[in-house]
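Long-time lurker. I teach an intro course on protein structure, and each term I like to show students one example going from raw sequence to a predicted 3D structure in token notation. This year I'd like something fresh instead of my usual example. Would anyone be willing to generate the tokens for the chain below so I can use it in lecture? Attribution to the forum is fine with me.
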Amino acid sequence: MAKALRVALAGLGTVGGGVIRVLDANRDLIARRAGRPIDVVAISARDRTRDRGIDLSRFEWVDDTSALAAHPDVDVVAELIGGSDGPALTLARATLAAGRGFVTANKAMLAHHGLELAEAAEKAGCPLKFEAAVAGGIPVIKGLREGAAANEIGRVYGILNGTCNFILSKMEAEGRDFAEVLAEAQALGFAESDPTFDIDGIDAAHKLSILASIAFGTRPAFGGVLTQGIRHVLGADIAEAAALGHRVRLVGLAESGPNGLFQRVHPHLVPFDHPLAHVTGSTNAVVAEGNFVGRLLFQGPGAGEGPTASAVVADLIDIARGEFGPPFAMPAAVLTDAKPADSGERRGRAYLRFTVEDRVGVLAEIAAAMRDAGVSIESLIQRGATVDDRVLVAIVTHEGPERCVAQALERLRGSQSVAGQPLWMPILG
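-- Reply from a regular --
Happy to contribute to a lecture. Here you go:
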């Protein structure tokens, strides 16, 4: 058998520890699949004294993480630190400049600096792999980059954040509101103490920009992702969606067309008969639509020690075999710089929810704003649900341009009848 692939691990948190456990537990199987052993030879983390439940004495400890890039006994560096900049980016740049392979689970760094790193990897002729950066243990990047490579992808979309999906599923199952379920999710470890990146859609937007680049051959464009999280979704919205035959899901959707690249993360109403409506808990799911293969559904655990570590080790196996190509499926030089598509031109149905004063004339005022903006109303519902002694009014629109809905909401801005910001959710078609 060929000599071992020698790996340095930067970061020994949940995923870093999981990588060591996977390599230990499946050592012989991995060696047979890779054609040679895969050995961790050096490690680095912030806290040298922390008990991680693993025997680390067999590895060389390197205090300066960036020194792993030039370590004479290392073939590949696996970065599991996180963060779009700082030590992770420094290590990535140095490792690729030194001509060594680089594996990462860092979606934020790839969303912001992926093009630069891909160019560096291709120039050095070394692998840059990041299966674990999107959807945890689900092999969606490999599926798009390799399995669907013969297809033109029409759109790619899905549930990309397990924390949000856990919260929405819990609200749906138990009829509770967002703040209460978020607190429980934090207590259970499903949400961070500062959950902003998750609940405001930023984490999903990072992942979507990576998927869009691979699917459409465009440069990663995180700055072009329109992002809205779930913090304003009420239990009443979820109940109303169910009454309409839908479930609420935070969906990241990317589509490339003649008008440019459209990327958006936003709560959607998903019909009961769509596969995403049945994705519950912290599970992730990605749908890709190819012109010959049709609809592909990738579903599974999107985070956690085992699934994410499994994806990291899968990348190491590919490198051990010598199997790697352009990081974003096409050489960086041919990735296009797609202009952002105008969301106002998109057509579809929408759910609108208003919190209003319970008095005569309010519904007429809302209906007039819709009429004047050219929005056709399919149904207008007031079921008596109240928030702070105000009434909730829900509208479902007929299909039409999103620009018209935006204009209607603008007409209602400042209305004495409408309290707070209306909630708008597209209906997934």
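Some talking points for your students: DSSP finds 13 helices and 19 strands in the chain. The first helix runs from residue 14 to 25.
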